[in-house]
């Protein structure tokens, strides 16, 4: 069985969800793009799930076009080559960290010109610039793909999204709880999704009011620990030190910050030892983080990173009350060394 013939169809996000639910989408090319990368990636997941729900045996291949030195020829060869293990294939082209260019449009056009009807191509990318959408190559492509742009959710649309996602996760939230969550995570859809996932693990099926939400939602998305780790790698020193101070004032646990630091220090050691991009991807390192790790690793020695692991082990004993000391101060010192701040040379001399 082949996928449906590709044809032009530009849909809004709501139209896409409705047609997918009704089973009225059947194409062998989808292009999802926009500023909200969570929505872009989840749209591709929904199409993939629909294909699998139909009982179609599919091989899946993902092409990370953001990676340095990405081999476009391997992507083009996939258009005409078949699968040894299944009737059909789902091929995903991801451009999550860089914006599509005219050259990339050319590669996609060439792929579609030789694409087998047994291949489903899904493209996930950042927002397409208006000038690019007017280019003759894109106008030709638009006749071969179902295109779905995703715009940032704001106001009522964001509130509806939060409410729907909460219901899907079997969370029962009062109006006040939803309003609080909306105010705390507005402008950061990924942070909102993470908070709902965390609440679902803790309170599935139980009613939640504003006071209960407030206990578990971080005060401001900028203090999210995962963002903090990225800021450390990017050496955004003022942002990092302010975030650490904010987490301490909020009474947040030092454990999650320690976990994040240890994880990144070990990843930095892998980079220093020459780990390949494929190895880092197995550790769930996305292209943007990969570049941050590679950049940060250049300014750090293996001996410094090994000493920082020992320092983190000391912090763990402080947190457990085994050793004396102030965990937040120790975490801040480790962070300063990672960022190469002046004044942290003391560590190199130990």
Automatic annotation (TrEMBL):
Keywords: DNA replication, DNA-directed DNA polymerase, Nucleotidyltransferase, Transferase. Residues 224-320 form the DNA polymerase III delta subunit-like C-terminal domain. Its EC number is 2.7.7.7. The keyword Transmembrane helix does not apply. It is an enzyme of class 2 (transferase). It catalyses: DNA(n) + a 2'-deoxyribonucleoside 5'-triphosphate = DNA(n+1) + diphosphate. InterPro entries: DNA_pol3_clamp-load_cplx_C, DNA_pol3_delta-like_C, DNA_pol3_delta_N, DNA_polIII_delta, P-loop_NTPase. Pfam families: DNA_pol3_delta, DNA_pol3_delta_C. Residues 30-144 form the DNA polymerase III delta N-terminal domain. Gene3D superfamilies: 1.10.8.60, 1.20.272.10, P-loop containing nucleotide triphosphate hydrolases (3.40.50.300). Belongs to the DNA polymerase HolA subunit family. This is DNA polymerase III subunit delta.
